[in-house]
Write a structure and sequence with these properties.
Structural class: alpha/beta
Strand content: 25-35%
Order of helices and strands: EHEEEHEEEEEEHEHEHEEEEEEEH
Helix content: 25-40%
Radius of gyration: 22 Å
Shape: elongated
């Protein structure tokens, strides 16, 4: 069992964690990134990426994360294949325990554990992910220009995704298992007034079905009141029943909102504990894009560097005063 020490400990290896690592390494902080259960984050299960700046052609999500990791290592980041099972935030060093038995100690801690889309868990959903089934309209809506699409859900996320998709499609259907929406009233009004959107009430999706080309071509629906089955033809199915931030590790240790997202000072990645920073989807339930995650990762590294510099200056001033 080994203890690994660093000036900057980063938990999570998606765009937020790796961006923090790149900035931290260039500042001489020799960061350690503990990669977690899904190294590379959600982009490793995303195929075509067309909205990350700097690439004129479509790129692949896993390739982008490999390049980010290679860049982080090139400038001095240590990557650890481990999963954190417990964390001590009482300080002065932040101590994380790994599933491997190793311990990781950081003078600063950057939390970049991300979030996972909630899925329905029905047949065909995972098999057709990236082949017509998606959990992110702003990521993938562009690929359905002029096509027929369906959004599954009834909260703010679902209504916002349906409205967004009207930028690309004139035939958007919202499918909801109840007879009323949970979304905010202003969003409901916009949805119901939009001529491009129709709503199927009291329907659950029981299966995503593939066509002859191996991509999604229909949903099998069941009426929640009559039990009647029907087939709904569609080119795209967007599951919009929310996201679950990966914050179980920090329950009772850091403040969270009702959805489990970590609380940070507005406009910053700073948590209530000095030296602990949160970035990416673990603290952002609004934008949830790779580029915004990378931006907050940069912010976390810059703030961590400032925190250590101020702490060192205060300690030196204290010694000088004595």
């Amino acid at each position: 069992m080994t203890t690994h020490t660093t000036r900057m400990l980063i938990i999570g290896s998606g765009p937020a964690g790796l961006s923090a690592a790149i900035y931290g390494a260039r500042a001489g902080m020799e960061p350690i990134v503990v990669q977690g259960l899904q190294p590379g984050g959600q982009l490793t299960i995303t195929t075509d990426v067309e909205n990350y700046p700097g690439f004129r052609d479509v790129i692949q999500g896993p390739w982008l994360m490999q390049e980010m990791q290679a860049q982080a290592e090139q400038v001095g980041t240590r990557m650890m294949w481990d999963t954190i099972t417990d964390i001590d935030l009482t300080g002065p060093k932040f101590i994380a325990s790994g599933d491997s038995g190793d311990t990781y100690e950081g003078d600063t801690l950057v939390i970049a554990t991300g979030a996972q889309a909630r899925w329905l868990g029905v047949p065909g959903e995972q098999a057709l992910s990236g082949k017509g089934v998606s959990a992110c309209a702003t990521c993938d809506g562009f690929f359905f220009r002029g096509k027929k699409v369906a959004v599954i859900g009834g909260g703010n996320t679902a209504v916002e995704e349906a409205l967004y998709l009207t930028n690309h499609s004139d035939d958007v259907t919202l499918i909801h298992r109840r007879d009323s929406l949970r979304a905010e009233k202003i969003l409901q009004d916009r949805l119901l007034a939009n001529p491009k959107i129709s709503v199927l009430w009291n329907k659950t999706v029981e299966e995503f079905q593939a066509g002859g080309d191996g991509s999604l071509n229909a949903l099998r629906l069941v009426d929640t009141q009559s039990g009647e089955e029907s087939i709904f033809a569609t080119d795209g199915g967007f599951v919009a029943i929310g996201h679950a931030p990966s914050t179980e590790l920090f329950k009772g240790k850091l403040a969270m909102d009702d959805g489990g997202y970590l609380d940070v000072q507005p406009g910053t990645p700073k948590t209530a504990i000095p030296g602990v920073f949160a970035c990416g989807d673990v603290m952002d339930q609004v934008y949830r894009q790779a580029v915004t995650a990378a931006g907050t990762g940069c912010m976390a590294a810059l703030d961590a560097e400032r925190y250590l510099a101020e702490k060192q200056f205060a300690e030196q001033s204290h010694v000088a005063a004595e």
